[in-house]
């Protein structure tokens, strides 16, 4: 064994304790750590020949790389829709690496059963019935990809072909309809061979990002019976808006369609009694995307996908090889997603759900929503800012009142980021350059609002 390896192995408990202390210092400093650190040019360094051992590598990281890492796990990181990692989720993630299980095969470990248990808990959490099955994937993009791949197979079923065998070309023209599709939907269509041009945007309700159900029915009727994929939204990224899922599902009575719901963070509205109505009808979807490293507050990367048509899912993703053993009545997870091997993403979620339960995660969701509403109220009361949409969930979309030009918004984003107290992202809503603040971190409380508002005002 290499000298550095054997030495690290002999001193592993001590080195892990040293690393644990370092990690604890990082976490305790999150409140004051710069929320964003604009990248700076770095000289390329050579690969070490002999290596420095774990202690040397830890010190090298501490000196060279760690100062450039953002405080994205902290309470004032409001860019994208990014959660942190609850204490239990963090421990689960550490143990994921320690145990290093590949859960896709049921030949050697109980890990797949743990994942199935977590999927069952999540299904219950989001109000999905037992007809829905699911699996873990890397993020919302992968979840949308899997859902749309199953939808593609369903289109083939309607046409009497197996796309998984014949290829996407056997389908002919494909139509995907959506009001305000996430960019990952376009990426998925490209990867699946359906093409970005298959996506047709449908008019939304006035002043909303939610699709107009009547306009959607007109678009479906224009297909004259040709099956389509409808991508509905449960929580849009700009304003947290929701499509009327029940109304869209009801269109299946008159038009052949596959209903895929992108509920990457909006599915968590089901935890709040005052917001659960927003996801009514989610159980009627054919496939659903939920991203856990958003409002689930588990570490990157972790998301789940659900579907009613596991038979089609297996047809798309099955991976038959003698060394994997014979197929069983309960399919191994290798047959459900693109990955043949992956980490046990479910363990972090298992720890967090076990530690805090439904009530603990509901408290995070409701506190984040209350903080978002409070920020919206404060911005609305300040004539220098203009709220562009009601705060429906956890996203605040706003702009400057006097000059919402792209250059002005970019300046504010960069100034806020360089100040280190806050991170928000730019966007455009109905042609207006804007800013968005997304509240999804378990550490964030209304006590952070003064600092958030001060950072925004200082950037004007």
From TrEMBL:
GO terms for biological process: amino acid metabolic process; carboxylic acid metabolic process. Keywords: Decarboxylase, Lyase, Pyridoxal phosphate. The keyword Lyase applies. Its cofactor is pyridoxal 5'-phosphate. The keyword Lyase applies. It holds the Pfam family Pyridoxal_deC. The modification N6-(pyridoxal phosphate)lysine is found at residue 294. One of its GO terms (molecular function) is aromatic-L-amino-acid decarboxylase activity. Belongs to the group II decarboxylase family. PANTHER family: GROUP II PYRIDOXAL-5-PHOSPHATE DECARBOXYLASE, MIP05841P. This is Pyridoxal-dependent decarboxylase. It comes from Thermomonospora curvata (strain ATCC 19995 / DSM 43183 / JCM 3096 / KCTC 9072 / NBRC 15933 / NCIMB 10081 / Henssen B9).
């Amino acid at each position: 064994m290499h000298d550095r390896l054997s030495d690290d192995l002999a001193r592993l408990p001590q080195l892990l304790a040293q690393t644990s202390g370092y990690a604890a210092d990082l976490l305790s400093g999150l409140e004051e750590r710069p929320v964003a650190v604009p990248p700076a040019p770095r000289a390329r360094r050579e690969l070490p020949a002999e290596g420095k051992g774990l202690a040397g590598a830890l010190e090298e990281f501490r000196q060279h790389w760690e100062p450039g890492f953002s405080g994205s796990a902290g309470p004032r990181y409001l860019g994208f829709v990014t959660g942190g990692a609850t204490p239990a989720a963090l421990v689960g993630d550490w143990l994921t690496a320690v145990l290093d299980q590949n859960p896709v095969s049921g030949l050697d470990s109980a890990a797949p059963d743990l994942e199935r248990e977590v999927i069952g808990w999540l299904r219950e959490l989001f109000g999905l019935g037992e007809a829905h099955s699911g699996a873990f994937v890397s993020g919302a993009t992968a979840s949308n990809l899997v859902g749309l791949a199953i939808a593609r197979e369903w289109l083939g079923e309607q046409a009497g072909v197996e796309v998984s065998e014949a290829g996407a070309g056997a389908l002919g023209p494909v139509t995907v309809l959506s009001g305000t599709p996430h960019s990952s939907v376009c990426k998925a269509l490209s990867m699946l061979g359906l093409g970005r041009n298959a996506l047709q945007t449908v008019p939304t309700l006035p002043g909303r990002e939610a699709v107009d159900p009547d306009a959607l029915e007109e678009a479906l009727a224009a297909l004259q019976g040709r099956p389509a994929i409808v991508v509905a939204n449960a929580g849009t990224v700009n304003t947290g808006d929701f499509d009327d899922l029940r109304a869209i599902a009801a269109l299946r009575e008159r038009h052949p369609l596959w209903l895929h719901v992108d509920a990457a963070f909006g599915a968590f509205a089901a935890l709040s009694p005052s917001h659960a109505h927003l996801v009514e009808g989610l159980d009627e979807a054919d496939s659903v995307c939920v991203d856990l490293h958003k409002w689930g507050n588990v570490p990157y990367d972790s998301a789940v996908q659900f579907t009613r048509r596991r038979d089609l899912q297996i047809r798309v993703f099955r991976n038959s090889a003698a060394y994997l053993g014979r197929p069983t009545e309960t399919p191994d997870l290798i047959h459900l997603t693109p990955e043949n091997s992956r980490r046990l993403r479910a363990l972090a979620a298992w720890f967090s759900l076990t530690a805090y339960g439904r009530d603990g995660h509901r408290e995070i969701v409701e506190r984040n929503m209350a903080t978002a509403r409070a920020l919206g109220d404060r911005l609305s009361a300040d004539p220098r800012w203009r709220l562009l949409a009601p705060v429906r969930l956890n996203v605040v979309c706003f702009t400057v009142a006097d000059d919402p030009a792209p250059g002005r918004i970019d300046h504010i984003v960069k100034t806020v980021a360089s100040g280190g107290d806050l991170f928000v992202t730019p966007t455009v809503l109905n042609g207006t350059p804007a800013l968005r603040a997304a509240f999804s971190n378990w550490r964030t409380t209304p006590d952070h609002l003064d600092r958030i508002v001060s950072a925004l005002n200082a950037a004007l």
